Amino acid sequence: MDFEDTPEEAAFRVEARAWLAEHAPKPGSPDYFFDIAHQADPEVEQEFARRARRWQATMAEHGWACLSWPVEYGGRGASPVEAQIFEEESAAFGVGVSRGIFMAAISMCAHTLMHHGSDEQKRHFLEPIRTGELIWTQLFSEPNAGSDVAGLRTKAELDGDEYVVNGQKVWNSYAHLADWGILLARTNPDLPKHKGLSFFLVDMRSPGVEVRPLRQATGNAEFNETFLTDVRIPVANRIGEENEGWRVALTTLNSERGAVGALAAYSQIDDVVALARRTGAHEDPLVRQELARAYTRQEILRYLRLKVQTSLSQGKVPGPEGSIMKLFFGDHTAHLYGLAVHLLGPAGALWEEDEAEHMRSRFVGQWGTKIGGGTPEIQRNTIGERVLGLPKEPKSDADKPFRELAG
């Protein structure tokens, strides 16, 4: 395999780089958002969201947003390699961080809508997602369900042409800034746990929605818990058939795992290499070996991501490679930034604003990377069953009505 750009890909890279050089917000400018990302101050968070929206809108205006989307939905129908090239170049210009706040919208909700949404839902939501008008959050996980998403207890009861929803969700990234959410709720407790779920789109400004930010070890409050009390959702905002939400959610979960792994494009391996040079550690053969391993892991992740993007561009639901990439990325993050903290020596234990601040933060925040989108244990089960063909773990609750399991 030729790992270099083809002449066409090289020309595309030049085009993307030239456009970014002209339009990407520069560090220190009023529109640059990387320097205020993931800060706990509510006013700063709102400003970050405004700047990220402006950048997404700029990309959409010039035809660079959602490149791999089909043309009918506003994309270019670009190849997975071209989309990867643009992500790499965006990361080099320091403007890729907006993917985080739009991940639920672009990498989860949009793909779910394309595969399972009605024509009206696609018309209503896809364009505002592409232009950055709408920020989304995922409302799947619950305190009592853990990694067993299908064990959720949030209820959605039909009342005329609306569902009334009551329950609690947790680990909802950017829910405090979101306009809309993708929600999985139980509509029939008399069916087995995977068969009584329905998938909804919920307006986060609806009466009864309460979002509470959760402070992390890094000091940031990106995650949230969300309480839903008598929240009314129109039947028109259900995706797919009633009680068939798990099938829809699998598309979302597979896309999420691939999107989390795709963040490897923004691993600052060059910064860690520069740190090794600055400290003189680059002459240590053991450090050089670790840097080579880190580079190799990042390249493996890049090509795994291309495989996922190929599936999406062909209209296919990504397979277990999303789990492989997500699991691998968690390990990569831990090793890469663990190495950075090691190279910093005693300064690695300091929490101060300097050029190494983001590396310390990524090291401390590695657990969010590992757990988000499904724990490593869940990913290994998926890989074992779907890739290696190992027998599934015995489950005594698969066919029992959820009402019996919930007590």
Account of the protein in words:
This protein is an alpha+beta fold. It is 47% helix and 12% strand. It is built from 13 helices and 8 strands. It has a 4-stranded mixed beta sheet. It has a 4-stranded antiparallel beta sheet with strand order 2-3-7-6, with no helix packed on it. A hairpin with a 2-residue loop joins strand 2 and strand 3. The chain starts with 6 loop residues before the first helix and ends with a helix.
Oligomer: single chain
Cross-sheet strand order for the largest sheet: 1-4-5-8
Q: What percentage of the residues does DSSP assign to strands (E)?
A: 5-15%
Between the first and last Cα atoms, what is the distance in angstroms? 56 Å
Assign the structural class, choosing from mainly alpha, mainly beta, alpha/beta, alpha+beta, or little secondary structure. Answer: alpha+beta
Contiguous uncertain segments of 5+ residues: none
Helix content: 40-55%
Mean pLDDT: 87
What is the tally of helical segments?
A: 13
Gyration radius, to the nearest Å? Answer: 21 Å
Largest sheet: 4 strands, mixed
The geometry reads as globular
The count of strands amounts to 8
Order of helices and strands: HHHHHEEEEEEEEHHHHHHHH
Gist of the model:
The chain is an alpha+beta fold and 407 residues long. The chain has helices at 7-23, 42-61, 80-92, 98-116, 119-130, 245-262, 269-279, 285-313, 321-344, 357-364, 366-371, 376-386, 402-406, and strands at 136-139, 155-159, 162-170, 180-186, 197-203, 209-213, 224-234, 238-239.
